[in-house]
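Sample entry as discussed:
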Amino acid sequence: LSISRNSNATFVNKRGVIETALPNVPRFDWSSGEPALLTEPQAENIVEYSNDFTQWVNSFSGSGSSVVINSNNAVSPDGTSNATNLQFDLNGGNTTSDNSLLSVLYSATSGQELTSSIWIKSADSNDYDVALDSDSTQSRIITATNQWQRLETTRVGGNTSLRTIKLGLRGSFGTSDNANILVYGAQVEEGDKATSYIPTNGATAVRLADDSIQTGDIGQYIN
């Protein structure tokens, strides 16, 4: 089995760990618990720092505290100790002015459908409800449990501009008063669903399409 793809690309292996395949190497993804050959179109992660959350903006106001960021704090979905511990606290604040958030800018155009995704897990034995804001305006409550989950939200933008993705606590949005979580692998990409993770470190990055799949001679298995 061969495939044409002139870039690295990630997949979830049989052990449930994110692995990187070299160019032109087929990927069998086990995210669903069964192997599936990944044949993805080209995609771009437009978040410039997908896993360095110290580069995100620490946004806090009202009763909310500055976000505590501990990099390389725990084992992430890729099997190495590069998950980031984030600690948010509203200190009892429950109004629109009470926030404890991290945010990052990205650029998009009017009418473009974008999907934001991130892996998230509780850093202790508690579940935490946190807000994931996409496209500066849409908010979704996501729950961090004691298992890694890749959570996503999709929105069609109304204008061409710099936009913001935010993660954390909002006093007026039904979130937990405090949260102690682990995060990994933020991604914003065009389309209505999250595709395989595209790491970035200071610039956007592109995963090229999987093309020209060849299986060799399979005639003996037909009829």
